[in-house]
């Protein structure tokens, strides 16, 4: 009998819960690639979805009907088959939830099952609906069993243990241990010492890029993370416009791209450019920029910049304070977990990914919806997304939607995009686990 195979993966964070339907942050989505079997999954290098739980998808010409033929062979942990009815149950449960997933599924009107066929009828056209089935909440689950390649067997605050399911496809390890390693430098050290077989893909220190860029194990996930500087407190009020403009001008400098610990190519039309190849070439030539301690000015005379405590938020916040200081604008750094928001602040560093993997995924990010704080503007923005979803997708329609959404953000969003950070990782495995995250 062959010996069991094992692998260890580094995650920079764990989801706040092991309840699969509630996974929405990046760590939850990474875990979902191991433990769930969605109808469709988002690939790394293409906007087209991969068929996972479905073997075929058929959508009507009016965007109101979507049929999914379920692929046979998937099993629950007890060996019973995963059926179309299991996908229907998960979809209806997600659509009825008071979550972001429930919001995007709000047009689900009827879900029916006949043998291995799942049919979904919508009350309004949505040609992007199949992409929504990539979300963890829409994948079948029974307690801790998500019918994926692995099931969770144990967990602590620092590790999650998983065992391979009998029906798992491909040459994958029998057991996995996910290790929570928040500091990316420690993650690289663990990889070099053989303690992990794959590093996290969200927090790679770019000043170390030259050390690893030529390594055959080096990989890139080009679906990036958008970093924004959000205005809060008095800066979010209408009378704060002049101050916002001054801060935006302080950020509009080539020095930002040289100082940030991630590739950045600023563009004049609000959204950052994601020419990753050119960004890497520049990043590999940089040296680590020492983090300056922001001078703490007198009470009430400085902008407070709140940042979450994981990499690279602190480093980005320090660069922002550096540029504001050079522009004669005093600022002080204040650590504050984003989920808590316990600190009254003027500026906040925020990182997010798009909600689902389509050509407008970044524009669907909840941060942008948060930053459009007038109802009129938010309605205009969401209606543009709805109009795009209610018509067949063409290169021209994508270009027009991006132009309209960017224009709305540039005019009314209470934030300044700073960078798009691609995920970079090292993996000893021929096929990196979680590759459709």
How is this fold's topology laid out?
Elements: E1 6-11, H1 26-35, E2 40-41, E3 50-51, E4 54-59, E5 65-70, H2 84-95, H3 100-104, E6 108-114, E7 117-122, H4 129-132, E8 150-155, E9 159-164, E10 175-180, H5 184-192, H6 209-212, E11 218-231, H7 241-251, H8 254-259, H9 276-283, E12 303-307, H10 313-326, E13 331-335, E14 347-352, H11 366-371, H12 375-389, H13 395-412, E15 415-426
Parallel strand pairs: 1-10, 12-13, 12-14
Antiparallel strand pairs: 2-3, 4-5, 5-7, 6-7, 8-9, 9-10, 11-14, 11-15
Helix pairs in contact: 12-13
Give an overview in words.
Strands 13-12-14-11-15 form a five-stranded mixed sheet. A four-stranded mixed sheet has the order 1-10-9-8, with helices on one face. Strands 4-5-7-6 form a four-stranded antiparallel sheet, with helices on one face. By secondary structure, the chain is α+β, with helices and mostly antiparallel strands. Among the domains are: 38-138, Dipeptide-binding Protein, Domain 1 (Dipeptide-binding Protein, domain 1), CATH 3.90.76; 225-421, Dipeptide-binding Protein, domain 3 (Roll), CATH 3.10.105. It has helices at residues 26-35, 84-95, 100-104, 129-132, 184-192, 209-212, 241-251, 254-259, 276-283, 313-326, 366-371, 375-389, 395-412; strands spanning 6-11, 40-41, 50-51, 54-59, 65-70, 108-114, 117-122, 150-155, 159-164, 175-180, 218-231, 303-307, 331-335, 347-352, 415-426.
Summarize the structure.
By secondary structure, the chain is α+β, with helices and mostly antiparallel strands. It has helices spanning 26-35, 84-95, 100-104, 129-132, 184-192, 209-212, 241-251, 254-259, 276-283, 313-326, 366-371, 375-389, 395-412; strands at residues 6-11, 40-41, 50-51, 54-59, 65-70, 108-114, 117-122, 150-155, 159-164, 175-180, 218-231, 303-307, 331-335, 347-352, 415-426.
């Amino acid at each position: 009998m062959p010996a069991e195979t094992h692998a260890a993966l580094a995650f920079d964070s764990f989801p706040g819960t092991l309840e699969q339907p509630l996974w929405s942050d990046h760590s939850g989505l990474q875990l979902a690639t191991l433990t769930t079997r969605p109808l469709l999954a988002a690939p790394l290098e293409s906007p087209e979805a991969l068929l996972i739980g479905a073997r075929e998808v058929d959508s009507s010409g009016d965007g109101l009907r979507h049929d999914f033929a379920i692929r046979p062979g998937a099993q629950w942990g007890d060996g019973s088959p995963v059926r179309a009815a299991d996908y229907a149950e998960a979809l209806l449960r997600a659509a009825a939830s008071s979550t972001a997933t429930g919001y995007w599924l709000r047009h689900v009107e009827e879900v029916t099952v006949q043998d291995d066929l799942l049919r979904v009828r919508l009350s309004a056209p949505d040609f992007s609906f199949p992409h929504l089935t990539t979300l963890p909440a829409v994948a079948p689950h029974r307690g801790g069993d998500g019918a994926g390649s692995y099931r969770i067997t144990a967990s602590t605050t620092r590790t999650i243990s998983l065992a391979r399911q009998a029906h798992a496809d491909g040459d994958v390890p029998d057991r996995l241990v996910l290790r929570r390693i928040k500091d990316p430098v420690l993650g690289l050290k663990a990889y070099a010492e053989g303690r992990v077989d794959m590093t996290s893909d969200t927090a790679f220190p770019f000043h170390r890029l030259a050390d690893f860029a030529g390594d055959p194990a080096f990989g890139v996930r080009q679906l990036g993370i958008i970093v924004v500087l959000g205005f809060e407190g008095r800066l979010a009020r209408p009378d704060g416009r002049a101050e916002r403009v001054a801060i935006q001008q302080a950020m509009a400098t080539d020095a930002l791209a040289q100082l940030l610990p991630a590739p950045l190519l600023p563009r004049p039309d609000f959204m950052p450019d994601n020419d990753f190849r050119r960004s890497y070439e520049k990043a590999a030539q940089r040296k680590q920029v020492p983090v300056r301690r922001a001078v703490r000015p007198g009470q009430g005379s400085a902008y407070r910049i709140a940042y979450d405590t994981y990499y690279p938020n602190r480093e980005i916040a320090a660069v922002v304070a550096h540029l504001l200081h050079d522009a004669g604008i005093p600022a002080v750094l204040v650590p504050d977990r984003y989920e808590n928001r316990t600190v009254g602040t003027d500026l906040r560093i925020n990182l997010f990914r798009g909600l689902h993997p389509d050509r407008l995924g970044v524009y669907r990010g909840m941060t942008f919806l948060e930053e459009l704080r007038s109802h009129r503007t938010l309605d205009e923005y969401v209606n543009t997304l709805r109009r795009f979803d209610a018509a067949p997708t063409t290169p021209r329609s994508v270009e027009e939607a991006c132009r309209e959404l960017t224009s709305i953000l540039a005019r009314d969003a209470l934030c300044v995009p700073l960078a798009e950070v691609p995920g970079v990782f090292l993996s000893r495995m021929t096929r990196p686990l979680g590759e459709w995250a």
